[in-house]
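Question:
When you can, review this sequence-structure pair and walk me through the tokens.
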Amino acid sequence: MTIIIFLYGLIIGSFLNVCIYRIPWEESIVFPSSHCPSCRTKLRWYDNIPLVSYLSLMGKCRYCGEEISPQYPIVEFLNGIIYITIYKYMGLSLDFIFYALILSILIVIALIDIQHMIIPDILVLILVGTGLIYKLLAYIIYKTPLALLDSIGAMVLPSILFFLIIYLSKGGMGDGDLTLIGSLGFILGIRHVFLTVFLSFVLGGLISILLLALKVRGRKDPIPFGPFIILGFFITVLWGEQLISWYISSFIRGV
């Protein structure tokens, strides 16, 4: 089953690359069919086999010989690994289907933010809509409380925090980060969204220092914050309860 989950992740990862390439330009993700971004030649099915095609072609277009961005196999492989990881923790369940879908969307958001410094509103709306459908299905199937007030509170409170940061920093953070944390708050609830916020700032600070130290980024170069929010979300989904329990047992109870 693990191999099947991985292969499924690779296939979805191939589609994510289409979304990453087209959504910022407001192009259809369905038409036209896949083509080489350099020579515009329509790709055959055997040119689109995840990982295999890139490796067999040695990272070059079959028709014009131009190099293919390594982003394509990286996104495919990353999505496959994420699916396996979620499956390991959640099994083949509604939770697995939901978080696999959410994290695939977040991969698209992260890459678009890195490349274009934007977070498309349509993807944020899809996150919220998918989260709402998941909560309704969980209520119907497992009788899990809807807790919509908690979800709405978790959407609003971190959004207010991010609004204040945007206002006080005068553009040090983008509006897309605000809508992103709001949508993820709706999914997570209050208990976990502020852990995500905390982790995003810690990870953002550490990775930004590393990028500056390695001279990958200069002091005046903008660094997108969306990927740090997404990384914090991923950690919270998988290990959030353990981190909260560790914090309470290590610090709160010792006071």
Observations:
- Residues 155 and 182 are 4 Å apart (CA to CA).
- The longest helix spans residues 226-252.
- DSSP finds nine helices and no strands in the chain.
- The mean pLDDT is 91.
